[in-house]
Amino acid sequence: MPPVTDLIVFALALAAAGVVSGLLAGIFGIGGGAILVPVFYQVFGYLDVPEAVRMHLSIGTSIAIIVPTSLRSFTGHRKLGVVDLELLKGWIVALPLGAILAAVIAALISSQGLRLIFVAIAFAVALRMLLDQPHWRLGRDLPPNPWRWIAGVVIGTLSGLMGIGGGVLNNTFMTMYGRPIHQAVATSSGVGVLISIPGLFGYIWAGWGAPGLPPLSTGFVNWIAVALIIPIALAVTPYGVKLAHALSRRQLEIGFGVFLLLVGARFLYSIYG
């Protein structure tokens, strides 16, 4: 067990991550998982959590935190009247189904495999955001069913495998079909709700009885980290919502892209560095 002073330092690091995740939940409509997963991975490693379950635990714990932060973010964005409620209603089965599929896959895949999935998606979305061109569009409006429904399942699955609330992929999906970035961000907060709740139970199931988990863990969810971060993240999320609507579309895209590149690079280093 690390010295008490070191544990205090890491508790402070988790608190700082809570601030960042709360802001991200508001700004980008995401649950903050893209910053929490790498932080958890480092902290759990320092606490000697085995490599075989460390990434799984990081993702599951992140999903648990996304439940309240996405709910808070969705409430804030809905009050501003820019959430596409019709799209969310059409995905009320597709997104949870994808989140459950992600938990099943996570129960079977290695830690390195999960990190590679995280990196691949983060880099792809970041490049799309940073190199965005007006002609990079798949259509003028969202596709009809069954393609729209299938997209919901894919977004739910990939987001569940990354430990994020779906904003990363939904923002890309909606903007590629001509929707404004602010509407995409606002709708993503609702996507996070539909992914994180079933995802939470899925990761508890996937990690049930797994060896090497730290104290106060239920499956691949560690409640100590959840308890430390949720109050802070909830407190700062409304400020992120306000900031999102004060920035321009391009500012949001550039900030989002740079953020994803940094996170992806850090995980790539953890695999091959």
UniProtKB/TrEMBL annotation:
It is found in: Cell membrane; Membrane. Pfam families: TauE. Keywords: Cell membrane, Membrane, Transmembrane, Transmembrane helix. InterPro entries: TM_pro_TauE-like. The chain crosses the membrane at residues 12-41, 53-71, 91-109, 151-173, 185-208, 220-241, 253-272. GO terms for cellular component: plasma membrane. It is a multi-pass membrane protein. Belongs to the 4-toluene sulfonate uptake permease (TSUP) (TC 2.A.102) family. PANTHER family: MEMBRANE TRANSPORTER PROTEIN HI_0806-RELATED. This is Probable membrane transporter protein.
